[in-house]
Write a structure and sequence with these properties.
Blueprint: H1 4-18, E1 33-37, E2 40-47, E3 52-60
Antiparallel strand pairs: 1-2, 2-3
Length: about 60
C-alpha cells in the first residue's frame, strides 16, 4: 500500500492535470473525497482557485 505522501503527491498531480490554470478557474471546485490508507483514512478537498489540496480530516484507527 502506498504511503500517505505518495497518495497526496498523486492527488496534487491529478488536480494540476485537470485544472492547469487554477487561478483563472471560474467554475465550482471539484468534489473532495476520502483515501483509505493503512490504519485509517483521510478526507481531502481541492480548492482550484487557490491551487491547494486541503486535508480536512485524518482518522487513525490504531491498527
Amino acid at each position: 500500500m502506498a504511503t500517505v505522501s505518495c497518495r497526496a503527491d498523486e492527488l496534487v498531480r491529478a488536480a494540476e492535470a485537470l485544472h492547469l490554470h487554477g487561478r483563472a478557474h471560474e467554475g465550482i471546485d471539484p468534489k473532495g473525497g476520502e483515501i483509505i490508507v493503512s490504519g485509517g483514512w483521510f478526507r481531502y478537498q481541492v480548492v482550484v482557485r487557490s491551487e491547494r489540496v486541503y486535508i480536512v480530516q485524518i482518522t487513525y484507527l490504531g491498527f
